[in-house]
Structure formats: C-alpha cells, structure tokens
UniProtKB/TrEMBL annotation:
The active site is at residue 113. Its EC number is 1.3.1.91. It catalyses: 5,6-dihydrouridine(20a) in tRNA + NAD(+) = uridine(20a) in tRNA + NADH + H(+); 5,6-dihydrouridine(20a) in tRNA + NADP(+) = uridine(20a) in tRNA + NADPH + H(+); 5,6-dihydrouridine(20) in tRNA + NADP(+) = uridine(20) in tRNA + NADPH + H(+); 5,6-dihydrouridine(20) in tRNA + NAD(+) = uridine(20) in tRNA + NADH + H(+). PANTHER family: FMN-LINKED OXIDOREDUCTASES SUPERFAMILY PROTEIN. It is an enzyme of class 1 (oxidoreductase). Catalyzes the synthesis of 5,6-dihydrouridine (D), a modified base found in the D-loop of most tRNAs, via the reduction of the C5-C6 double bond in target uridines. Specifically modifies U20 and U20a in tRNAs. Keywords: Flavoprotein, FMN, NADP, Nucleotide-binding, Oxidoreductase, RNA-binding, tRNA processing, tRNA-binding. This is tRNA-dihydrouridine(20/20a) synthase. It holds the Pfam family Dus. It comes from Zarconia navalis LEGE 11467. Residues 28-329 form the DUS-like FMN-binding domain. Belongs to the Dus family. DusA subfamily. PROSITE patterns: UPF0034.
C-alpha cells in the first residue's frame, strides 16, 4: 500500500471535514437520463456527503441551449460536479466559466462514453487516442477557473487497451495540471458494441486501476465499474482514493443510506425509507405547483424499496398515478400507505403461520 493510500483510508473512514481539495471518497456516477436534478435531490435525502454528478452535457448545449434548464440545481445537491462533453479547448474553457459562475464544485471532462453520437462529435472515449488534445482542454479549463478539473475515462479503447496505453494517457493529461482521474475499469469498444454492452461485456480489470494509483501516487484516482455495495467500495480504499458507483445507485439508491456514517465517519442515524419518501413531499409540491409532471420526479424514486416487502405495491401505485393531472405529493403518501398495508398483511400472515406450526 502506498503512503498516499494509507493517508486516504485512515482505518477505512475519511471525514468530510478532511475533504477540502475537491476530492471525495464516494461518488454517484454521471448517467444519461438518470442523474438529473430531481434524482440528485432525491439522493440528497439519503446521503448528504456523497459526491453527485450531472448527466453529461455537451459544450454546444451549454453555450447555445437553455442554461437554466440544463444547468439548474438546488443548493441541497452540493457537493456537485458538472460533467462536460467536448473537445474544443476554447469552448470548454467558456463552459467552465459558466459552471463556476453558477456554483458548481468541480468540472469533469467525459473521456469514457463510447456512443456513436459522442464519437461523431469527437469527444467521449475516442479522446483516449488523443491525450494531447485532452491535455490542452484541461489546461484551458484550469486557466479559466479555480475549481478542480477532473477527467473520467476508460482503461482503454479498442486495441489500445494495454496498461501502458492508459498510463501514457494519464501521464500526458496530468502534466497539463489535472490531478483527479475517475477510471472505469473496463475498456470500450468504439465499434461493434452498444453503450449498454460496453458497460457489461468487456471484463473488469481493477488491477489496472490499482496499478495506476501505485505508479501515480500524487494523483487522486477514483475507480468505477461493477460496484453494488458500500462494503465493496470500502474494500477498494486500500488501493485507490475513491469509488464511484453507477447503475447500482439508481437500481437500489437506499444502499447509500449508511454512507455518511460508514464512509465519512459522521455520527448520524441513517434515514428510513419512509423518511426519505416523506422528505420529498414539499419538493414535489413546489414543482407540480408550477405545472411540472410528478412522474418526472417519482420515476427516480421507484427503486426506493428495492429488496424489502412492499416494493411492488410502491412501484405500481407511483407508475399508475404519477402521470395523472394534478398529481402531487399525495400520490407518494398513498404509495407509502400501500407499502404499509402490504407489510402489515405480511406480518399478520407470518404470525398466523407461526401459530399454526406450534
């Protein structure tokens, strides 16, 4: 274990007060059509400390689109990272200024997305073959703002997937001043696999990311790919500085309920699932009062009761009622009642079976 790793884990716990350089030991990964502002606000009701990311937003959208819609966020969502897709240093620098002016805590450059649309724009994973261009982009952004600039990338692309290829990429980009790298521990095939297949088919190579941290101990290295629990995350702190959890955070968001206590060392009691749902009432009512569809918020809440009795009743009621005209927090309250009714019925049935077996 390197001296840097030892300092980071500190008995597998790192307090939030110690995190003052823009880094963070646990993150929810940026995910298209998932990590919008409503999902992020929802996650903040579960964990106050875990670092959250926006969906990837292109430089063109930021420079020419509806910034309030694309970049707006609630103060409760912080610490918050804006992930940007682009390859033009001048445009990226201007986007960085916009982000810093809005109060984002960090800017992350996407060098990991393998979709055809992203490749056609010459950004995402294809930029791993152009480390000098990425270095210029990072340098331009760092000159433009004082908040941290990070890069999220793969361990390789196509046939450029040897460890030495990734190490060369990181070396060139870090020499331009980048100090934070989030590494998806799978390579990406730019042709032949869909973005979904690129998240599953290429094998995970955690050892390559561990080696990267050993070879670049002065850099902050975050590992991503395949993690589904905080226990798995804590097991990684021996080798890297941070862990990023993606799909599992969306499919089972409540797994983060103990993060503030178990990862950040806070003396806090995790919220119950019911408390998380109830904490969304006022937020939902503020948005629906302005004509916003409740479904656009509750779609991110469907998996709150994953793994516990009543989850089907919860998801069914929200799915069938959140799109109705006038739907507001009362729909969530009714869905909670369905969960309670189901759980009560299960308890009664369990008691009956126990009595019969005596």
């Amino acid at each position: 274990m390197t001296m840097s790793s030892t300092a980071v884990i500190s008995n597998s716990l790192r307090t939030f007060a110690q995190i003052s350089d823009g880094s963070n030991p646990l993150s929810v990964a940026p995910m298209m059509d998932r990590t919008d502002r409503h999902f992020r606000y929802f996650m903040r009701q579960i964990t106050r400390r875990t670092r959250l990311y926006t969906e990837m937003i292109t430089t063109g959208a930021i420079l020419h689109g509806d910034r309030a819609k694309l970049l707006g966020f609630s103060p409760e969502e912080k610490p918050l990272v804006l992930q940007i897709g682009g390859d033009n240093p001048v445009e990226l620098a201007e986007c960085a200024r916009v982000a810093a002016g809005l109060g984002y805590d960090q800017i992350d450059l996407n060098v990991g997305c393998p979709s055809d649309r992203v490749q056609n724009g010459n950004f995402g994973a294809c930029l791993m073959a152009q480390p000098e261009r990425v270095a210029k982009a990072v340098e331009a952004m760092q000159k433009a703002v004082n908040i941290p600039i990070s890069v999220k990338h793969r361990i390789g692309i196509d046939d450029r997937d040897a460890y030495e290829d990734m190490a060369n990429f990181v070396r060139i980009v870090s020499e331009a001043g980048c100090r934070q790298f989030s590494v998806h521990a799978r390579k990406a095939w730019l042709q032949g696999l869909s973005p979904k297949e690129n998240r599953d088919i290429p094998p995970l190579r955690y050892e390559d990311v561990h080696r990267l941290k050993q070879d670049f101990p002065h850099l902050f290295v975050q590992i991503n790919g395949g993690f589904t629990s905080l226990e798995q995350a804590r097991g990684q702190y021996e080798f890297v500085d941070a862990v990023m959890i993606g799909r599992a955070a969306y499919d089972n968001p409540y797994l983060f309920a103990t993060a503030d206590r178990d990862i950040y060392g806070e003396q806090t009691t995790p919220p119950t699932r019911e408390q998380v749902a109830e904490s969304m009432f006022d937020y939902c009512d503020r948005w629906t009062a302005n004509g916003f569809k409740l479904h656009s918020i509750t779609r991110h809440m469907l998996q709150l009761f994953t793994g516990v009795p009543g989850t089907k009743a919860w998801k069914r009621y929200l799915s069938e009622n959140a799109n109705r005209p006038g739907a507001d927090s009362r729909v969530i309250a009714e869905a909670l009642d369905r969960v309670r009714q189901y759980q009560t019925a299960q308890e009664i049935e369990s008691d009956r079976l126990q009595m019969m077996s005596r």
